[in-house]
Amino acid sequence: YISRDLRRQQTGVYDEAEIIDTRAEFFTEILGYLLVRRRTHREGAPTPNFTFRQSRFDYFAAVARDHIASDEAFNRMSATHLTANIGSLVPEGKGIDETVVAIAQETGLVKLNEDGTWSFIHRSFLDYFLALSLATAQSNKQISRLLTLLNKSPLRYEEGFYLACGLMASRSWPRLPELLKQLGDNAFVGSHYPRACLEAQAYSVPDFADRIRFYCARWKREKTDKQLLHDLVSVLIDYERSCRVLGRGAEVSFAGQLW
After folding, report:
1. Distance CA 23, CA 104 (A)
2. Overall pTM surpassing 0.70 (yes/no)
């Protein structure tokens, strides 16, 4: 992970519009090409408008959301999810099944398996589109529900949740600080806090340093959660780099907390 501030120092580029600063934003850029611009380049089609672009993002987000909420094996989606959400993407004179196949071929994002199920060609794409459906929390109730899903099915929701934090940061989502606060205070899913802050580059949220100290102390006390240690090391190193670029002193450090 490379923070926006470190990227500025390395590239000399200070225009924020030119810097992809979170993993989620990187995926947004890649998928923007696969869903929209690739069609223009390959077929010489006119550049589509925003509605066309958004409808394709919304389609795959709905497919990912419904699949993850089901009891299907991970990334083995029934055709029903792809046909039920196709909606306005079906051109006049074409059938639903034909449109699903055409979008699959055009974007290259999903493939048909021999058993009749569908899969994203890589799980990271599934996680990203799931994140699109998660990064919309508007109220404490919705935040609580999101954390419940993370606690109930971490293997299905974890990576999508992290990417959702990055999306919220990229969009300056006003509820992100509250989401991170509730995450850090939650006894069941709080260990996800360091990675969530890393994905969102959220080092200026209230009590960031205190919560990182808490989870560092917890790891040193228990020394059983290797993933928590990995996430703490990653977020502390990135946080210190960002502070150096900005000419600020770091409130917490890798050496001070984990060395």
Report:
1. 24
2. yes
Cβ density class 3-22: b for 16+ within 10 Å, e for less: bbbbbbbeeeeeeeeebbbb
Distance CA 127, CA 254 (A): 29
Residue 19's pLDDT band (boundaries 50, 70, 90)?
A: very low
The amino acid that residue 93 corresponds to is: G
In 3D space, the residue among 152, 96, 120, 130 whose CA is nearest the CA of residue 34 turns out to be 120
DSSP annotation of 77? B
* Residue where the block lists tokens 């939650």: 186
Phi, psi for 155 (deg, rounded to 5): -65, -25
List, for residues 59-72, the tens digit of each pLDDT value: 999 999 999 999 99
Strands 110-112 and 118-120: antiparallel
User: Which stretch of 50-54, 116-120, 188-192 has the lowest confidence by average pLDDT?
Assistant: 50-54
Alpha helices in the chain (DSSP H): 4-11, 23-32, 38-43, 50-69, 79-84, 96-107, 123-134, 140-152, 154-170, 176-185, 193-200, 208-222, 226-246, 254-258
Residue pLDDT, tens place only, 112-142: 999 999 999 999 999 999 999 999 988 999 9
C-alpha 183/C-alpha 193 separation (Å) is 6
Q: Which amino acid is at 116?
A: G
Q: Give the span between the Cα atoms of 233 and 215, in whole angstroms.
A: 11
Residue 241 and residue 17: Cα distance in Å, rounded? 21
